[in-house]
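**User:**
Everyone, produce one record:

**Assistant:**
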Amino acid sequence: MPFDVGDFFIPLPDDLDASIVCPACGRPLHEIRLSGRVGCETCYFEFGSELQAMKREEFSRVHSGSLPESLDTLRTIINAKSERRRKIADALQREDYEEAARLRDEEAADDN
């Protein structure tokens, strides 16, 4: 489902910066804060520091919590398979075919 960057910003009272407008397009700063969209290229120059602050706030809201258990389990399985395949490649490089076959059989057993 598409979303607008403006959905992440806390609305400010309209009267706080309603009088601050872009001289070229007339778009008020409070509308830019609400929508996350500028009106013209001059807005970037006029509201540069405000836009930078909005950008910093947007990127500071990145989720860094834990994964759902099902995704964490999947990640563990993928990492184990990747590590086993690396070990198989190492064993083949050393020409240790018995070890490579054992690891291959472990991987086949895990897949079933």
Observations:
- Residues 69-111 form one domain.
- The chain is about 60% helix and 0% strand.
- The first helix runs from residue 14 to 17.
